[in-house]
Design brief:
By secondary structure, the protein is an alpha/beta fold. The chain contains ten helices and 15 strands.
Length: 346
């Protein structure tokens, strides 16, 4: 059986308007029990916000064995997507962060540069869609909604935090089980895409969100942190207000074509896929050690490069409670079923 997948040669809007139908397939059982922040799940497998453009995309991948789906990042107002290419394959080995640039290639072999710019429909559209999605999603699957503030030129940090909190409250009111505050997007140059690098600013935002969503679970989505002191500072700042961290949201670098010219006006783009696996597992292990040392009550979502059972087990062994798969799932929608089948045999 062949399952539809995201068409990277088509526009974001085309893919938004042409989601696949829910699949009717038998899903292999994951061995043992799984849970996340008090929610019981059929497995630790989930999908981050990137591929799940709307509710129908969430329902499609949930029907293919993903038990924790994250609705693509939404805003308090409309934001258009960047022009194509939104997904540019790159030729690269394992990344650690700090690379100056990576070369493009025509065929996808596991990693690509992602360039969307966190687009969003108007709130009245995404709120209705989230509500309908939660109604149709099986009760034993988590629906998370990723949110971001839309900083304006004259805004203070508190105004940005208020905008994050407004989106978070709207998401919860629409039926989201979890809210993810997106603090990392290498594809935008404004501070809303880099907040995780400034612990005290991040703290103000999550504290403000918490006032608006009460006890609803809150996840912080962060980018690449290799330095233990930087990770320790961030965790110290935000741990009282968040329930979990999702990492790593890609590894940023510039992208150069075969003629030696930089794509995307020479701006950095996040590299996603297999090239981020080692660094992301390492970062999960670092965060887990600090959480243990300090006695924080934080759970971790491993994100980046997983495509098989061995990769998932690496994340779980490093301290993640859930593992989210994006690039491999966009290329192979059957990947969750394959991983579950391998786990049940093992």
């Amino acid at each position: 059986m062949s399952f539809p997948r995201y068409d990277r040669l088509q526009s974001y809007q085309w893919n938004y308007d042409n989601p696949p139908e829910v699949a009717e397939v038998e899903i292999p059982k994951w061995p043992g029990d799984s849970s996340f922040c008090g929610y019981r799940l059929k497995s630790p497998l989930g999908m981050p916000a990137g591929p799940l453009l709307n509710g129908q995309w969430c329902l499609y991948y949930a029907s293919l064995g993903f038990d924790f789906v994250t609705y693509k990042t939404v805003r308090s107002g409309y934001r258009a997507c960047y022009e194509l290419p939104n997904l540019q394959p790159v030729r690269v080995g394992m990344l650690q962060g700090g690379e100056s640039d990576v070369p493009t290639q025509n065929e996808m072999t596991g990693s690509w540069a992602v360039s969307y710019g966190m687009p969003s429909t108007e709130p009245e559209i995404w709120q209705k869609d989230v509500m309908q999605t939660r109604d149709q999603l099986p009760a034993n699957k988590i629906l998370c909604v990723s949110v971001v503030g839309s900083v304006q030129p004259d805004w203070t940090l508190q105004q940005l935090a208020d905008d994050y909190a407004l989106c978070a409250r709207m998401a919860i009111e629409s039926g989201a089980d979890f809210v993810e505050a997106n603090f990392s997007c290498p594809n935008v140059s404004t501070c809303d895409g880099q907040l995780y690098q400034i612990p005290e600013d991040c703290r103000l935002v999550v504290e403000t969100i918490r006032t608006q969503i009460s006890n609803s679970p809150l996840i912080g989505k962060i980018g690449r942190i290799a330095d233990s002191d930087q990770m320790r500072s961030l965790l110290a700042a935000i741990h009282p207000f968040v329930d979990a961290l999702a990492m790593t949201n890609s590894i940023a670098t510039r992208v150069k074509n075969e003629d030696g010219e930089f794509l995307f006006d020479g701006q950095q783009r996040g590299i996603c896929g297999k090239a981020t696996l080692n660094a992301s597992v390492e970062q999960t292990r670092l965060a887990k050690q600090i959480i243990r040392d300090e006695g924080y009550e934080l759970q971790l979502i491993g994100v980046g490069g997983a495509s098989c059972l061995e990769d998932v087990e690496q994340y779980l062994d490093a301290g993640a409670t859930a593992v989210h798969i994006a690039t491999a799932a966009m290329e192979n929608p059957e990947v969750a079923m394959e991983i579950k089948a391998a786990a049940s045999v093992g």
